[in-house]
Each structure stands twice: as C-alpha cells, then as structure tokens.
Design goal:
single chain, alpha/beta, nine-stranded mixed sheet, 11 helices, 40% helix, binds adenosine-5'-triphosphate, binds magnesium ion
Length: 323
C-alpha cells in the first residue's frame, strides 16, 4: 500500500548531531514574578536533520536519519521517532539529549523560543557519528547535515561530512551557521541553505537589498563554496543561486502561526524533489511551498502533504502564467 504513495527516488541520509526534544505549550501572558499556568504540552523530536527526515516522510519520501541520543530525554526522543516509523541509526552518547522550549503567548500571538545548549560530545562520540555516516552514505544520493553543533564537536565537523560525501559520490547539503557553515563552505558542498541572518553574518553585511542578496549568494557559487545556494528570506521568500543564474520566489499570502521548522521544511522538500529527479526550479518551488506551509501550523507542528502540494502547484501556475 505504502509503496504506491512513494515515488522512486535516490536515497537521502540526514545527520543530526544536536537533536532536541521540543516541548511546546502556551500561556496567556509571559511575565516575571508569577507562576505562568500553561496549556497541555506537546513533545516533538526536533533538530535540523530529524525535522528534514520527518517532513520528507510526510511528503511521501524516505530517509535514513542518523542522530545522537543520551540520557532520559534521549530515551523519550527515541520513542517519539520510533512512533513516526522513520528509519534511523542512533549514536549513543553519555550526556542527555537537550530540550527546547517554545511558549505561545495567547493574548498577543507572540512566540518565545528557548533553545538550550546541547550536551558536550566527546571526541569518540563525534567520531562515531562520522564513522556511521561514512558506513551508511548512500552512493549517488544525498547527505543532509543540518543544525547546530553541540559543545565538543569541532567547527569543521560538517566539512568532514562534506569530504566523506564527496568520497562516496554523494551530494552534501548543509544547513548551519557561523564557523560550522564557514568551514563547510571552505570544503565545498552541493547546496547550502542559509537564512538572511546566517548569510549576513558570514559575509558581514545586512543583505537588505535584492542586489546584495543575489550578489552574496552568487559569490559562493562563483568561488566554488557551493554548487547551489538557497538563501531563505523568511516572509520575503527565497533566492536560489546556481551556475546557470539566480531565481527568486516570493511566498504566497498565508496566515503565519509559528515559524518553527520553516527552514527544515524548506530543505526537506528541496532535497526530496531533487532525489525524485525533478528540476532545480521545481525543487525550489516545492521548498518555498513547504516552508510556507509550515508557518501556517501552530507551535512546533510541521507542514502536511496536502498544503505543500497545493502551494507548490500554485507557485508552478504563477511561473507558467496560469491563473
Ligand atoms: N513569515 C513567513 N511567511 C511565509 N513564509 C515564511 C515565513 N517565514 C518563513 N517562511 C518560509 O520558510 C522558508 C524559510 O524561512 P527562513 O528564511 O526564516 O529560514 P529559517 O531557516 O527558518 O531561519 P533561521 O534558521 O534563521 O531561524 C522561507 O523561504 C519561506 O518559504
Ligand atoms: Mg534555519
């Protein structure tokens, strides 16, 4: 049964070295000095690569998700992932998997996101992640390395992943910031997905104008840092720079409820469509559609397939000039 909803695709491996057990809840107003009574909480297995894996699965695709887990939070995390039936390989760690905390303020619609630091990884733990990636890299497929690096993991960790991927003829996609992003770019990757803030920090500019955005993204393609740069601009859409030129898409009008997971959803749809053999333009449209679909869902909830496909065909129709 399941097979009929899945399209033949190249394999995708995702890597999450700093996953987080996402706890989300809401309260009337966030103030100091009082107990803040909260609504029932929701638990999700979050973190860059795992979120990518979860969205790919919702969109009818398949991944192998490699992630670290430790302590009681790691146990809870594993159970949540198992419930979603995502194929995984776990690297056990000594420390406890971190927790993230999201509170929606119901009276204002504001969202407060507390992102905690991850447990420190020992050298043998992060080397075990690399060894597992190396063993399981899908030859001719995709490796998606996404999310922050926890303490103890060297800045060149994603650069090492990129090197392993290249050695196995796989395409490496990186979503990271700061030194981890810089090192990956210095190594050279297939695709990077910085947000405006992340690319801005990297190039030391605010990237407010269209021209500065295109220029910064194209420069990374020109100097060989990445074959493709998908620069996401939140509610202003995204820019895709490649050797063949640049594309820009604005987002369809939607009601924004929570932007948690927007970037991961963008990346998931992008890599899934590429793995399904679609063109770069089609993958880019699906990516914008998935990012936008995710912001319409509350708190940590990710997108669903029907919304993504509706927004995706809307964007395709706009490009072709159809009503
Ligand atoms: N306010 C919004 N309205 C509509 N779509 C949005 C909005 N914010 C984000 N998106 C969608 O999600 C994509 C990714 O968003 P964004 O640029 O904020 O990246 P991000 O990775 O979530 O950001 P960061 O990592 O800096 O928190 C956008 O390209 C767009 O498709
Ligand atoms: Mg992001």
């Amino acid at each position: 049964m399941e097979a009929s909803t899945r399209t033949a695709m190249q394999p995708i491996l995702t890597l999450t070295v700093n996953p987080a057990l996402d706890i989300s809840t809401s309260t009337e107003q966030v103030t100091s000095g009082h107990k803040l009574r909260c609504s029932p909480s929701r638990l999700d297995p979050g973190g860059g690569g795992v979120n990518v894996a979860r969205v790919v699965q919702r969109l009818g695709g398949r991944t192998l998700a490699v992630y670290t887990a430790g302590g009681p939070t790691g146990e809870a995390y594993r159970r949540l992932i198992e419930a979603e039936r995502i194929p995984t390989l776990v690297v056990p760690i000594q420390g406890s998997t971190r927790e993230d905390f999201t509170v929606d303020e119901t009276t204002t619609g504001k969202q407060f996101r507390f992102v905690l630091q991850g447990p420190e990884l020992s050298e043998s733990e992060w080397r075990a992640c690399l060894a597992l990636v190396e063993e399981s890299i899908p030859v001719g497929g995709y490796v998606v390395a996404s999310g922050s690096l926890p303490p103890g993991v060297p800045d060149d960790f994603y650069a090492r992943v990129a090197r392993l991927a290249r050695g196995h003829d796989a395409r490496c996609i990186v979503d990271a910031s700061g030194p981890a992003l810089a090192e990956a770019l210095a190594e050279g990757v297939f695709l990077v997905k910085p947000s405006r803030r992340e690319l801005g920090v990297h190039v030391g500019a605010a990237l407010e104008s269209d021209e500065s955005q295109v220029e910064a993204a194209s420069a990374l393609v020109a100097d060989g840092s990445a074959e493709h740069v998908a620069l996401t601009l939140g509610g202003e859409g995204a820019v895709l720079a490649s050797k063949s030129g640049t594309l820009r898409l604005s987002v369809p009008q939607v009601q924004v409820r929570s932007t948690v997971g927007a970037g991961d959803s963008f990346l998931a749809a992008f890599v899934l469509r590429l793995a399904q053999g679609r063109t770069l333009e089609a993958a880019f449209r699906a990516a914008v559609a998935a990012g936008t679909a995710t912001v319409t869902t509350p708190a940590t909830e990710l997108c669903n397939r029907a919304d993504v496909e509706r927004l995706e065909s809307g964007l395709a129709a706009a490009v072709e000039g159809r009503p």
